[in-house]
Amino acid sequence: MQDVFITGTGSFLPGAPVDNGTMEERIGLLSEHSRKLKAASLRQNGIKSRHYAIDAGGNYLFTNAEMAAQAILSACDLARLDPRRIGYLATSTTQGDLLVPGHASAVHAGLDAGPMEVSSHQSVCGSSMMAIKSSYLNIRAGEHHTAVACGSEFSSRWFQPGFYSAIDFAGLSAEEALEYEFLRWTLSDGAAALVMDSRADDSRPSLRIDWIEQKSFADRFPSCMYAGSRTADPEQFRPWAHYGAPDEACGDGAVALRQDFDLLQQMFPVWMGYFLEVLDKRRLSPEDVRYFLPHYSARSLGNRMKALLTQAGAMIPEERWFNRQHRVGNVGSASIFLMIDQLMRETALQPGDRVLCFVPESGRCLAAFMCMTVV
User: Per-domain residue ranges for the chain?
Assistant: First the structure.
């Protein structure tokens, strides 16, 4: 079995940073209560700036696939890798640009890199670790010597007011409206990528991937963060493609993205239980971790995570937490890639440093971990 090393990282964040005061120019308002719910959402998520692939004039600047390709080229540049040497490409996203074909094909087409093996991974934030593990296992098994994994999102196009035209916000309580509004003021656009190789880079620090763990708990929960059905209630569930026409699905509110906050809170003990299970299985002590890269949708949820880990006696010292969401936004599947890229570029990594990544996903409750060692 071959060892696997991250030898290059790259990111692509479209346009200039957008501060909290000018977000409305990009995604608009849904109702007379939108500004109040925006303020509440920003207090919870703690985000100060983010990037959008839509400008203030409503022009779409990039596709999802184009942003992913740019991030991959940036990672290849850092790794000094000719893209034509990529043997395997794994992509992750919440929603690609097309229903068919797969997102990986579109990203591959934007690389001008010749034929390669590809795989598309679609979920929410957790799709990132699916793509990373796919690339990792392909190198580990000796199928390829060089692979790339990437995460990319174009969330803002789904947050345009037209996608919510069927929702009667005047008839909703503030709590009900927040199920739609929170994600609009939290998620944003961008992409990032990792180059993986069977050999470390002798000229600068590389990250050896020690192990990756992922588990779904969808057998215990209905959908929590979802789009494509008006409701997650099993008795009323109706996929968008089961309507007579796409406009009928839109007219029934089936395409609007939403988050069930009560269900989200029920997932935290499950994630933390899995966290303890992984630490025990891998015999990893919190004190062994030099850098902890946790992905969470909001600062308030990060604080909940800290409280539960402290209660369980598994808290990694807070000064070792590394998260830059406040300045780049929550970029879904791209977030963990962005954190690794920022870690590689902004910190003085030392041989032997252990790095632990944690990606929980509320879509239908899953979580993933990756442990790496600096070499």
Answer: 4-197, 207-221+259-320+348-374, 226-254
Half-sphere exposure of 290 (CA within 13 A, CB side): 13
| Alpha-carbon gap, residue 325 to 328, rounded angstroms | 5
- Regions of the chain with pLDDT less than 50: none
Distance CA(358)–CA(129), nearest Å, equals 9
Residue owning tokens 């997102």: 103
CA distances 183 to 68, 177, 359, Å, are 22, 11, 17
| Cα-based angle 236, 157, 240 (whole degrees, multiple of 5) | 20
Look at residue 301 in the predicted model and tell me its pLDDT.
Answer: 84
Residues 6 or more apart whose Cβ sits within 8 Å of residue 374 = 205, 206, 207, 208, 349, 350, 351, 352, 353, 354, 355
Return the C-alpha torsion angle 39, 41, 45, 50, nearest 10. Answer: -70
- CA angle, residues 343, 347, 353, in degrees to nearest 5: 80
Q: Which residues pair with 149 in a beta bridge?
A: 90, 194
Q: Which residue blocks in 28-173 are alpha helix, DSSP H?
A: 34-45, 64-79, 103-109, 127-140
Side-chain half-sphere exposure of 347, counting CA atoms within 13 A: 21
Q: What are the φ/ψ torsions at residue 24 (nearest 5 degrees)?
A: -60, -25
* pLDDT, position 96: 97
Contact 312, 272 (CB under 8 A): yes
Distance (Å, rounded) from C-alpha 65 to C-alpha 166?
A: 29
Half-sphere CA count of 86, side-chain side, radius 13 A: 35
Question: What class does CATH assign to 4-197?
Answer: alpha beta
Question: What CATH class is the domain 207-221+259-320+348-374?
Answer: alpha beta
pTM score above 0.90: yes
* Alpha-carbon Rg for the chain in angstroms: 20
User: At 74, phi and psi to the nearest 5?
Assistant: -65, -40
Domains 4-197 and 207-221+259-320+348-374 share a fold: yes
What pLDDT does residue 299 have? Answer: 85
CA distances from 56 to 20, 96, 268, 271, 303 (A): 14, 23, 37, 38, 33
